[in-house]
Amino acid sequence: MYRLLALDLDDTLLDKNLRISEDNRRALALARDAGVVVTLATGRMYRATLPYARELEINAPLITYQGALVKHAVTREVVVHRPVPLACALDIVARVQARSYHINIYLDDHLYVERHTEESRLYQSISGVQARAVGPLVPFLKEAGQDPTKVLVIAGEEKLDELAAELKPLYGDNLHITKSKPYFLEFSHPQATKGHALAAVAAFYGFKPAEVIAVGDSYNDLEMIEWAGLGVAVANARPQIKARADYVTVSNEDGGVARVVEKFILGWA
After folding, report:
1. Which GO terms describe its cellular component (predicted)?
2. What residues form DSSP beta bridges with 6?
3. Domain boundary among 139, 154, 188
């Protein structure tokens, strides 16, 4: 019944050490052997997602940057690229810098920051990508003259909630604003969501929503969980995400992805 399986990485497929368990790896190999297309759907950069795709021998478009960039893991074909309009990015940076919060800018699958900070080191440790310090970001963006793929702000959860509440009415439908982690606030193109990106991947193969499973844990996974025929949340997901999912599996530390494959793809009891 299911032909496409889309998996969030952090706190869903990956354990607390940012690794794929042998249990999950074995189950995904069996899913592929059964003819199911397996892909990853993450807020991570394409270059930070590729090592996991190679580990799992994925031969499919990867959903990266929250859906702003859908790019094939093997052929490197770009299926979708929906960046943040430069004018919006400049406005975001100016407003956020007034609060002295850390900002990540993504251009051509490279990560840029104003200067190296505790936040940039934290992000580097999670993503495995080295940030490039370029000084003040507004002049840098103006000189680059490109629409960035994504803008990310790092701060405490309460601060980010306040910032999101202030900026969402300001930008309205011109930007998609979501949290991928409690301390990561993401600004993307309005159609750069995992839901829109998953629809693009399904269309790439000619699959219908009813043939798709999506598994995630956080706010940025909600659109794809609701779009898929079977939307699954891991047990460690936020309560609001579990409430909107069709099924709740066990946690990322307990092989939640493997249990989904066994139950809904392999038909094991």
Report:
1. cytosol
2. 39, 214
3. 188
